[in-house]
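This week, think about what follows.
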Amino acid sequence: MSNIATTYYPQSGSLVVLGAGESGVGTAILGKEKGFDVFVSDKGLIADHYKEQLKAEGIAFEEGNHDEERILSAALVVKSPGIPETVPLVVALKAKNIPVIAEIEFAAQYTNAKLICITGSNGKSTTTMLTYEMLKHGGLNVGLAGNIGKSFALQVAKEQFDCYVLEISSFMLDDMYHFRADVAVILNITPDHLDRYDHKMENYVNSKFRMIQNQTEKDYFIYCLDDPETIKGLERHHSKGTYLPFTQEQLVELGAYLNANKTIIINTSNNDTFTMRAEELSLQGKHNIYNSMASGLIAKVQELRNQVMKESMGSYVNIPHRLEHVACIGGVNYINDSKATNVNSVWYALESFSTPIVLLLGGVDKGNDYSMLADLVKDKVRAIVCLGKDTAAIHTAFEQDVEIIVNSTSMQDAVVLASHLAQKGDTVLLSPACASFDWFKNYEDRGDKFKAAVMEL
C-alpha cells in the first residue's frame, strides 16, 4: 500500500516535470521507471551533472525555454517548489484541469515506507538531521530526503528504505493534496516567505498545517505547545492522529516537557519514560531543546531504546552553516550560522550564547523587521560588522543598542574587523538574517568564505 491510499493521479501517459534540480531529475527518473513518457522543462539552464543524469536515462529535456504546447498536453505535471502558483504556465495548466503536484506527492504513491515529515519556519534541517542520525543509530533502515539530501523520488526509484525522514517546506506542502504523513511535526511558525502568501500570515499558517490533512488514527502529530501561531492554527486544523505536544513552559502527561530541574521528560503511550538533563544535549540553547524534544518524540514513537536516544542526542554534530563551530583563535570562538537567512533564525542564534558577541549581519534584506532582536542585541552584542551593499537598515535598527557598528567590504574584511573588535572569551557569530546573493552564490558559499577567512587569521 502506498502513502496515498487511493490512486488519484494518472499512472501513464505524458509526465511533464517543471524544473530540473534535485527533485525534478529524481521525479523524471521515477516517472520513467513507472512507465510514463517523461519530458523535463526548465526555463533556466540545467546544471551539467543533472543533464548527464537525464541523458543517461534517455529522458527528453529542454532548458532556457518552455514548450507550452507540449507541457499543456501533459496528463500530469510535477513542478519544482520554487515555481509560484501565480506563474502564467501553472495557471494555464490548472485551467485545463491538469494535476500539478509536488515531487513528494508523486513519489509517495510508489512507496509503503513510513514517512516522518518535519516542517517549521526554523529548526527544520537540524531536527531532520538529528532524527535521521538517531533512527540510523537505532538500527532502522532509514532514508533522508525533502529539502535536504538526495531526491525522495530518486530514492523511491533506486533504494529500499523502510522509513524516510523528510524535511518539508511550505512551498512543497502547497502542491500536496492526498499525501499522508505517518508522523507529522510542526516545530514553529514565524513570518517567512509571506510574499508567496499574499502577505497574510494566516495563509502561511494554513500551508504549514497541510502537513496533517490526511492523517489517520494510526498516525502521530508532534507540535510545539509554546508557539502562538501553531496554537492558533490548531483552532482551524485537526489531525485524526495522536497529539504529542512539546513544551518548556508547561507540564504534559503525554509528550515532552522541561521540568524545574532543567531535565527533559518524554512520555508516550508505551510508559517507558525518557529523561535527559538539558546540559547533556550536544545542541545547546533554548531552541535546540525544542528541536531535541521533537526528535526525541519521533524516536519514542518509533520505539527506539532510551539509551540509543541519549547517545544520539548527546553526541550529534550540527549540520554545516547552522551554528557550526569553526575555530577558537586567541580565546575567541568563531561560529558559522550562514543558514540564518531570516531575523527569527538570528534570534535563536543569539539566544544560544552566554558570551559577548561580535555579530556579522546583513546581505540582501527581504524587508526585515529587526525589532524582535533589540533586547538580545542590547544584552549580548558588543559590536556589529555589516555585510553586503545595503547596510542602512541595520544601522537604523541598532544604533541605539550597540556602541560599534561598522561596514565591511568583503567577507575577509569583515572577519578581520571582527577579530579586532572581539575580546578573549567572546564569540564572533556570522548570522546574517539576509539572503546572500549580493556578494555570494548562496548561503553555503557565504559560510565557506567565512570559514576560509577565519582560518587565515
Summary: The chain has a mean pLDDT of 92.
